[in-house]
Specification:
Length: about 425
């Protein structure tokens, strides 16, 4: 099989993995002729997937052969799909060629399990090693790791990659046992814990080194210490499949909150289940609505940036599911009208963050402005916030919402009717 045919198969096989953002990478560039690649800069073009998504990484599998039989996976051992496999040198050459053409800013590499978890992980790590050590590649590298691989292989992966990830796949141990019997959620947790320790130790060492450098700055500038080694500076992430089992949104968010709290994950990605050829009877016949995935991402941001806890985002009236017709922040505000209106001039930051239509930057600007003067209605217009959504929930020096919060049809007023969009 030629390289182009392999690329067609293995790039398509990787499209179901959503966890490929390049945020959090250490800044590197090739200015001055040093090495190749960059993790920053506006001159990097993006490639586009066949379905129109904009991606800036070469996102491929080393191979779509897999000895596991995860029922939801199109690449499972019992799946009747064309198979292909790259060599280490082929992945390295593809990455360099695409970068030279200004199509990508880095590499996202995953793989099916072949021979053994250790053998597969060795191949994945070798790609990153060759890029870094033999070609001085300074672009972004994200490696999908295998939880059953040896700890020393995980440690080697962290030396070369900007971000590591292990897919938890499903939010509960029961679902993983039913749909992916070869996978062990305890092993996944152990691997995440090891990575969290290594990442924490690396960051602590670099902070200590930076502090010592400041103290010793007046001394001789000729003495330089080697930098503390980086270990996956972009942190670790994971992905959960949504809709392949009967797990509700409340349980999914509880699992995400545990992963953020226990393992300090940088991101949890949510991927709506997609029906696959020759699917098992245990799987649903249709994909969940894509808006469900979108609502989970919105709820995830509420936990990470807005001070919400997972158990307060999904209202009890929704039977464990997020509302599909409105964003979860608005749904929470409508369910807790007694907390509003919020006074823009006196409310604490934590409460301002709960106002529908306010983002983190908007709240920071309001806090900065009210230190020097009282906020008025016109200030909201200058911030370009969605006034229709915001005004029922706030009051300013010259504005009161009156009884707007008591309106029985307030939800209908703030959620426009769905529009059937056309591609033509």
């Amino acid at each position: 099989m030629n390289l182009q045919s392999k690329l067609a198969i293995l790039a398509d096989a990787a499209k179901y993995d959503a966890s490929c953002a390049s945020s959090g990478a250490a800044p590197r560039n090739s200015v001055g002729g040093r090495g190749m690649g960059s993790t920053e800069g506006m001159g990097i073009c993006h490639s586009y997937a066949p379905d129109g998504r904009c991606i800036s990484l070469l996102k491929i599998l080393l191979t779509n052969f897999c000895q596991y039989d995860c029922l939801y996976c199109v690449n499972r051992v019992t799946s009747n799909v064309p198979r292909a496999r790259f060599t280490v040198d082929e992945v390295v050459q593809l990455t360099l060629d695409f970068y030279r053409r200004n199509c990508i800013e880095g590499l996202f590499l995953s793989s099916g399990i072949i021979q053994s978890p250790d053998y597969t992980m060795e191949q994945v790590v070798e790609v990153a090693r060759v890029l870094r050590e033999e070609h001085d590649f300074r672009g972004y590298i994200h490696l999908k790791t295998i939880p059953d691989a040896a700890p020393e292989l995980m440690e080697r992966a962290g030396r070369y990659a900007d971000r590591l990830s292990i897919n938890i796949e499903l939010p509960t141990a029961e679902s993983l046992t039913a749909l992916a019997p070869e996978k062990d959620i305890a092993a996944i947790d152990r691997s995440m814990a090891r990575m969290a320790v290594h990442i924490g130790e690396s960051r602590a060492a670099r902070k200590e080194q930076a502090a010592q450098a400041i103290v010793s700055m007046p001394q001789s500038r000729t003495t330089r210490r080697a930098s503390a080694p980086l270990f996956a500076p972009g942190g670790q992430s994971t992905q959960m499949i949504v809709g392949a089992d009967a797990t509700d949104d409340r349980t999914i968010l509880a699992t995400s909150a545990r992963l953020y709290g226990v393992h300090q994950l940088r991101r949890v990605y949510y991927s709506a289940f997609s029906p696959i050829p020759d699917a098992a009877r245990a799987l649903p016949l249709a994909a969940p609505p894509t808006v469900r995935e979108h609502r989970l991402y919105q709820a995830d941001w509420l936990m990470r940036f807005y001070g919400f806890t997972h158990d307060e985002i999904v209202p009890s009236s929704q039977v464990g599911m997020l509302a599909l017709d409105m964003d979860p922040k608005l749904a929470w505000a409508l369910a807790h009208r007694e907390r509003f209106p919020v006074n823009l001039n006196t409310a604490p930051r934590e409460l301002l963050l709960r106002v529908p239509g306010f983002g983190v930057q908007t709240v920071e600007r309001l806090l900065a402005a009210r230190r020097v003067r009282r906020l008025r209605h016109a200030d909201l217009a200058r911030l370009h916030v969605p006034l229709k959504k915001v005004l029922p929930f706030v009051e300013a020096a010259d504005y009161r919402p009156g009884r707007a919060l008591d309106a029985a049809d307030l939800a209908a007023q703030l959620t426009p009717p769905p529009v059937q969009r056309s591609l033509f």
